[in-house]
Amino acid sequence: MSKLLSPAKTEVLFMGNEAIARGALEAGLSVAAGYPGTPSSEVIENLASVAGQRNLYVEWSTNEKVAVEVAAAASFAGLRSMCVMKQNGVNVASDFLLHLTASGTRGGMVLVSCEDPGALSSVNEGESRYFARMLEIPLLEPANFQEAKDLTKWAFELSEKIHNIVMLRSVTRMSHASGNVICGSLTDKSRVARFVYDGPITDPLRGPVISTPVVAKHRLQQEKLEKAKKLFEESPFNKYFGPKKPQLLIITSSVCFLYSQEAVSSLGLQKRAGILKLGCTWPLPERLLKKYLRLTDKIMIVEEVLPFMEESVKVLAAGMPKEIGLKTFYGKIDKTLPAVGELNPDIICAALSKVMKVKCKSIPAAYVKGLQKAAALIPPRDQTFCPGCPHRASFWSINTALKRDGREGFVCGDIGCYAMAALTPAIGFHTVRTLHSMGSGTGLACGFAKLGAFGFDKPVLSVCGDSTFYHAVIPALINAQHNRADITFVVLDNAGTAMTGFQPHPGLTTSAMGEAVPAVDIAQICAAIGAKVAISDPFDLDGTSKLLNSFMEQSGSLNVLILRQICALSPEKKGKKKFEMRVDEALCLGEDCGCNRLCTRIFRCPALTWDRTKKKAVVDEVICAGCGVCSSICPQKAIMKTEVIS
Amino acid sequence: MKHCVSNAKLHSKVYRGGKEEATLHAPGRQQSYRVIRRGADNAPGIRRAGVANKGRRRKVAWYKEPMNIIITGVGGQGNVMASRVLAGMLVDAGYFVTIGETFGMSQRGGSVMSHLRVSSRCALSPQIPQGRADIIVALEPVEAIRVLSKYGNPAVTVLSNSRVVYPIGVITGDFNYPSLDKIKAIFDKLTVRNWLINATSVAVEMGNPVLSNIVMIGALAKMNLLPIDRRAFEKEITKNMPADKRRINFAAFDAGAKMV
């Protein structure tokens, strides 16, 4: 039996995302939709794994906007639904969300946004909490694993009480961390989908679901928010821990609560500092805040990343000076805490020790010196493409073609593992010169390609992965064709949403729930748009680079090259070597070759290493994936491949 | 007032016990060893009152409150799996376990790290404060030093695999990789006890280098620093792995136990 379906009252170790999924199941969820994105993906994956047993419909949608729309339809039909995404996804979905929050919802609907402070697996650390304020919807933030489950369940109830979507925000250190959770009971009540629309236009529960009349619906939306605020005043998810008369009040939410708690105790400040942990962070419960702000004149607000709560608390405080008195606020605005990157217990310790004038405990200086000496001896370990990664081969060919072309062309990059091609240590050859949001590489390439009238004459390429193609690239591609943007577009098709863990996408024949579904073919879409399309195996370095050159030479058309090779970490490929690789020491000329160690300095596969004593290249068989690509880059043909017969 | 916030005490109907007047827990402050678990002296089994797996808890002497363990290595070495297996055993033994992890893009050839925090009192933050690791388990030797340099303290124990995975910067020749002798000397100087074992070679002999992580778990169990043993491991593996994969994991565990 799946751990996710553990019986009530059992205690299990849940990842934050599993706890969120369990909470939704306990709430009687019917429909869930999302788009993969670290750290959010496991919520949908877990729900999909029990879809059959729990009579759910779970899908990976083409993008986050579609996911919210799919989930909203279920809510309109009276079911409980959830949409799940990482922080950037909320940006993508925001246009629909802005209208949805005006029309309101019916069955409980929850938007889960898992964010990435510190950008541990992102190219931004943007916040979606500000969307809750802009969309005028309630925002909930779990502060531990049990709450991740309990608060998710409550979010559905809240949504049904106010008839609007509720946002639940998690962060990487919650979503991808694990902790003990005691399960509640799974509901067996099943709902029937029924969409009622023949009431009057002004009746949001029986009429058509629309955002007009706008002012009336907007007023109603604000009344819903007021109702949520009242419920927040009494919510057990907002709780104070500490002395009756603290010298300092810490207001915190999410995983920062655990950090604050740890910092307070490690400084021995339990009798001097109190912690107000808020699970309901927008709109702030005013009466509750008033009660605790009165306790002391020193207030510290601990949150990630931007001063969202801090601003809200200050606005509230400004409105009640007589009741609460003058306050000194410590947080991000006065720079007590950094407003970039993620927090941790150490950062909060340092801030607290400054504010409370106490010393952090320290380790003996001699020992610390020893640690520093040891740290100086170790090499950094930079991210790189995995052994056997098709992207290394693809970018090798792109680089070869650009060099042969000789016009200083470049690549506009996109979001996926292949974004690493923009990082210096990943590969020793750089071609990616822009990197922004999903699909933006091709849009930018369109723009560059239209700069000819202003003296711009470099060839422009754009790349994207297969999942990104469906998510956001198609409009840019149509734009390129229609507006005659002369670009070469390369699809790095590795047969799955690889970076987030091989979730299926519209190009594959299996759905999130494991059902057979029709694949939507990238080549056919590109051809229908009017592009010239070619397909190649990126492991064929020579063929691929020649195709690219012929494309770059053709002006006046949109050219698409699809490079197909399955990700080396995919379940189909992992642990299965196609070739046994070895370096023939007699043929490898080492530093004397004149190739500047193309294999180990430029190609940079972790499995192709350098024997410092023999001064020759050597294959690390434990980590080699056996893709065989390196054999075609050696000018001496010293890297030998032998096909593995299975 | 309650300062120690065990998750469920707050919001779930399940009573998890604990004295009402208990003050904020002190992670890392308790340097005294052999602290008796609170659940044991207050009211036996109180944490489990009303919980279905009540009574499964074994009486084990606890060594330090909390215990901070870091499992580190290179992406793809089975770091996450090792931390899950270990945490599963500890949750089963009745402890609060918090695992802090990052995975996703960070695993692509980079250093990876799981923070495991074991407490008999409450859920702790998923990040161990600097200088507060009690045990470091490294699937790659240089990663042991990387973690040590940030989380080490004079009382730390290190268990490291000796199989090297060269970083790209070393392969290109931009950086040097310290010799295993040098690494061992660093361990000897900066840890209270340490082991440098060739878990990967044992795993390769067994047919799959990825078993290195289980070899390391076997060695860790043998060290007797944590309330885990072969029986707990069997139970955990049986729960989470298909039958055909169990035997090789048991063998890897046993091989590890023989190495310390």
Question: How would you sum up this structure, described in words?
Answer:
The complex is a heterodimer of chains A (646) and B (260). Chain A is 36% helix and 17% strand. Chain A is of the alpha/beta class. Chain A has a 7-stranded mixed sheet. A 6-stranded parallel sheet of chain A has the order 16-15-17-18-20-19, sandwiched between helices. In chain A, strands 9-11-10-13-14 form a 5-stranded mixed sheet, sandwiched between helices. The longest helix of chain A is centred in the middle third of the chain and has 20 residues, at 214-233. By secondary structure, chain B is an alpha/beta fold. Chain B has a 6-stranded mixed sheet, with helices on both faces. In chain B, helix 7 crosses helix 8. The longest helix of chain B is centred in the last third of the chain and has 15 residues, at 243-257. Classes of the chains: A alpha/beta (646), B alpha/beta (260). At the A-B interface, strand 1, helix 7, helix 8, strand 8 and helix 10 of A face helix 1, helix 3, strand 2, helix 4 and helix 5 of B.
Q: Can you write the helix and strand succession of chain B as a string?
A: HHEHEEEHEHHEHHHH
**Distance, first to last CA of chain B:** 45 Å
User: What is the count of β-strands of chain B?
Assistant: 6
Largest sheet, spatial ordering of strands of chain B: 2-3-1-4-5-6
The overall average pLDDT of chain A, rounded, is 95
Total helix count of chain B? 10
How many angstroms separate the termini of chain A?
34 Å
* The CATH homologous superfamily of chain B: Pyruvate-ferredoxin oxidoreductase, PFOR, domain III
**Structural class based on helices, strands and sheet pairing of chain A:** alpha/beta
Provide a count of the helices of chain A: 21
CATH uppermost class of chain B: Alpha Beta
Task: Fill in the CATH topology of the largest domain in chain A.
Answer: Rossmann fold
Assigned CATH architecture of chain B: 3-Layer(aba) Sandwich
> How would a crystallographer describe the biggest sheet of chain A?
7 strands, mixed
| Overall outline of chain B | globular
